[in-house]
DNA sequence: ATTCGCCGCGAAAACGTTATATCCTTTTCA
DNA sequence: TGAAAAGGATATAACGTTTTCGCGGCGAAT
C-alpha cells in the first residue's frame, strides 16, 4: 500500500494538517517542524496523491487533447508545442488519437468530462451535431487549434486560411504560371477546405486567370491523396504548370507522383505546399510552402485556454496568427 | 457546480447506493428503479467523477508515457499504436515529451507517481542513476518500448538490434559492396548504439571486409545528423559505395546530402535505413530499411504492461519481435 | 412452521487529501 | 499592564464516489 500523509504525520510526530502545510508551502510552520516533516517525507518516499488532492481542491490540472492523427508531422508538432506549454504551467495532457473514428471522439469527450479535465483542445473541425451538443453541454473550456468550426461560439487559434491561400496562389501567378492546379481539402471543412479553396479561386479570378474545372481536385490532406490527385492532373491533356496543394503532405505526394512520371519539380511543374511542416526541409527539392506558425499555434492555443480556465474571458473568440510564404526550391518561374 | 451522484439520487427518489449500482451495472436493482435513475442521469447530464471513483477504488486507469520526441515519425507511430490499445482497454494516456530534457523526465516521473498512474512506458534508454533509482523506488510497473536499458530488471519490447544490424549490413555486402559506411547512434545507448554497431562490425568481419575507421561515424538519429555525417563521408578520398544509417531519419539526411553533392542514390551510393518508419515510402528514391514492427511494438508494449498491471508477472523481461528487411529503391548492387 | 438464502434497497464508513474552525501561545501596542 | 493581533499547531469536516453492512421481504428447503 502507498504511504499516505497520515504515515508521514505519525513518523514526524506532528498532525496531518501540519504535513499538508509543509507540502503546500504555507506559512505558520516553524522551521524545526518543517525539517522534521521533510525528513519524514524523504525517508518514507512519500508522494502526495493528486487524486485525493484533486477531489478536495476541485482542480485536476488536466487538459484533454483530441488529435486527428498523431503520426502527422503537422499535428505532432503542434502537440509537442502544446505539451511544452502545459508542462511549464503544471498541466498534464490526456491525449486521444482519433483516426477518423468519430465514436472514439465521443467516447473521449465523455472521458474528459469524467476526468474533470479543466480544458479541451480539439484539432479538427469535422464535428457533428451530437458532438457539438455534447461540447456545449459539458461546460468545460474548449478551444480549437489550427481549425475553426462553423459554430461561432467556440474559440480557436488559426491563420487566415483564405488570405494565406490567396497569397500562395498569387505567388504562383506572379511566377508567370497561367494554369495552376489545385488540390484542396474536404469542402465540408470550413477552415482548410472552403476558405483555402475560395482563396485560390479569387486569386485566380482577380488576376484574370480562368478557372479550369479539370485542374481542381479535393483530397484528404494526406500524402497518398496528393499522389492520386496529381496522377489525375497529369492524365489530362495539358496539365497545369504549377500545382498548389493545401497541405505539405499532399504536396509531397504530388511531387512524388510527378517524379514517378519522369517529370521534374520544379523544372516541369512547380509545387506549392501549405503548413510549413518539418517535411518541407526534408524532401528534395525542398518544398515551397505557405507556412503556418506551428509552434506558436500550440503556444497560443495553450495561452488562450489557460486564460479561459482561469476565468479571464477572452474578448474575441479567435486568435489569428500570421501566415508566411517560405520560398524554397519546388517552385520556379514559368519559362 | 457539477451535478453529483447525490443530486441524481434525490432527483430519482432513491438512495445514492442505488444510483451507484445502476452506474456500475450491478445486479439487485429492479428495472423500474433502474429506469428512473437512468432518466435522472439523462436529465441532469450527470457524469460520474473519475477522481472520486479513483480515490475509493484505488485505480486510476491512467498510464504515463515518456516520449523522447513527439515530432519523430518513429515515436509518434508507436505512440499512436499504444494509444489505440490503451483506449480499447479503457486506459488513458498521460504523455510527456522530453526533448533531451532530463529534468522534465524527472519531473514527470514524479507527476506519474502522484497521479497514481498504473503503469509507465518509456521510449528511450538514456536513464541516469537518479532516474533509475526513482523508477525502482516508486514501484509502478515500467516497461521500455523499442529500447532496452542496461538495468536488466526492467521489462522491454524490442527487436534484436544486433541481429537486425548484422542482417542489414550483410545484405549490402551481398549486393557486392566492399566498402560500407556506417552512421551509428550514440554508443552510450545499448540498444540502438552499441548493438547496432556490433552487428555492423561483425557482419563486416565475418565476410572478410576490412573495417575502415574513416567510414564509421556516430550521430543522434536525426535527419540533420545524418546529413552532416554523410558530408564527412563524402569528403574522404574514396567514399564508401554504400552507407548504412541506423535510423531512417539519418538515412534520409544522408540521401539528401548525397543528392546535394550531385551524386545519385542508389546509382552512385546505396543507402540503407533502420526503423521502417513512414518516411521510407515518402521519399524518393524510396528507402530500403531494416524494419522494426512499429505498430506491433506498440501493441506488444501495452500487452505486456497490462499484464504487469493485472499482476500476472511476465516470465521473461524482454519481448523480442521480428525485424524484417524491406527492400525498396535506395540500394542496388555494386557495379 | 421454521430456517435458510437470495433480492432489493439504504445508511454509513471508507478513500487521502485540503479547508475550516478552534485553541493555545507569543508578540505588539496603546 | 491588559487587550488585541498574529503565530503555530490540531481536530474535524468536507470532497464525490464505492463498499460494507444491515435489514426487511419472500420463496424454497428443511
TrEMBL record, chains A, B:
GO terms for molecular function: DNA-binding transcription factor activity; transcription cis-regulatory region binding. Keywords: DNA-binding, Transcription, Transcription regulation. SUPFAM superfamilies: lambda repressor-like DNA-binding domains, Periplasmic binding protein-like I. Residues 3-57 form the HTH lacI-type domain. It holds the Pfam family Peripla_BP_3. SMART domains: HTH_LACI (SM00354). InterPro entries: HTH_LacI, LacI/GalR-like_sensor, Lambda_DNA-bd_dom_sf, Peripla_BP_I. This is LacI family transcriptional regulator. It comes from Cohnella luojiensis.
